[in-house]
Design a protein that fits this description.
Elements: E1 4-12, H1 18-26, E2 44-50, E3 53-59, H2 69-83, E4 87-93, H3 100-113, E5 117-123, H4 130-143, E6 148-151, H5 160-170, H6 188-204, E7 213-221, E8 227-235, H7 238-245, H8 250-267, E9 271-279, H9 287-292
Parallel strand pairs: 1-3, 1-4, 4-5, 5-6, 8-9
Antiparallel strand pairs: 2-3, 7-8
């Protein structure tokens, strides 16, 4: 039996569908999916098995023009993820085409392409006519020598199986990197924090304080098999605390309930979840907060 294993980095602009594709490939929810840009902060790894191949996905933060330290650390993590992988997949949204952001990524690709396979994935194909798709495919392939092009809808699953099969064949021969039943190498505390952050993002929409993070402060395994999870939501201003709590605490109650339900389903056991909101004006400048998110504080310089 010849086994294969390796890392595949998904890169693209924010909202290109990287997290949706990762979750579809792995068959479980390991990366949060929202309609807010820049929701994926750390390099989430999901593990997919295809025949005798183990595909380890590195889901990178969306590549965009960085302004703050957190932005710069996220962009550095994205390119770092690509440089660590055997295969890099560029995800482009069919209906948005070659934006300024895609142009910038194409320029940066030349630096990470040495010695690795680069594939093109055009996502959300159900949103455009076939002639638009053909034109976009041609334009992109003229700008960069992609090993292969895939037209998919990550949300609906179209074309995803072909992409997974191709990745499985392209990976180098070698032993598997993870136990077969392990879907993600993110610590459970971090996945739990990401789930709560997703619920906050969905609930708050326009009002969402961007400078907000969630940390799992304590995780206690109980004798009855349940888990007690304490989480802190950090915001930078008092006014943001009020937004997260909501009138009479309704927002935080609703977030807590939906996060607890998802965590219960994800872990397959009862979860007791306790949320607190704390104001920390300078959390964006604290190295500890970055390591909690799997980012390198120094990359933000």
């Amino acid at each position: 039996m010849t086994t294969r294993a390796g890392f595949v980095a998904l890169i693209g602009e924010p909202n290109a569908g990287k997290s949706t594709l990762l979750n579809r490939m792995v068959g479980a929810k390991v990366s949060i999916v929202t309609h807010k840009v820049q929701t994926t902060r750390a390099r989430v790894r999901g593990v997919a098995m295809e025949g005798e191949s183990q595909i380890v996905f590195v889901d990178t933060p969306g590549l965009f023009q960085p302004r703050r330290r957190l932005d710069r650390a996220m962009v550095a993590a994205a390119w770092g993820g690509a440089a660590d992988a055997e295969i890099v997949l560029l995800l482009v949204e069919a209906h948005r085409g070659i934006t300024e952001g895609v142009e910038r990524i194409l320029e940066g690709l030349a630096d990470v392409a040495q010695g690795r396979t680069v594939g093109l994935v055009i996502n959300k194909i159900d949103r455009v006519q076939s002639e638009v798709l053909l034109g976009l495919t041609k334009d992109l392939n003229e700008r960069f020598d992609f090993a292969e092009t895939f037209l998919i809808s990550a949300e609906r699953g179209h074309g995803v199986d072909d992409l997974r099969s191709w990745l499985a064949q392209e990976l180098p021969e070698g032993p598997w990197l993870y136990p077969e039943d392990q879907i993600a190498d993110l610590p459970m505390r971090m996945i739990a924090a990401e789930i709560t952050r997703e619920k906050l993002t969905l609930r708050l929409h326009q009002e969402l304080p961007y400078q907000m993070t969630v940390e799992t402060e304590n995780w206690e395994e109980r004798k009855d098999g349940s888990a007690k999870i304490d989480q802190v939501i950090y915001v930078v201003r008092d006014g943001h605390k009020g937004i997260v709590l909501g009138k009479r605490g309704e927002t935080i109650k609703s977030v807590s309930q939906s996060s607890r339900e998802e965590l219960t389903e994800f872990l397959g056991r009862k979860v007791h979840l306790f949320l607190q909101v704390k104001v920390r004006p300078n959390w964006l400048e604290e190295a500890e907060r970055y390591s909690e998110m799997g980012l390198d504080f120094k990359d933000g310089n």
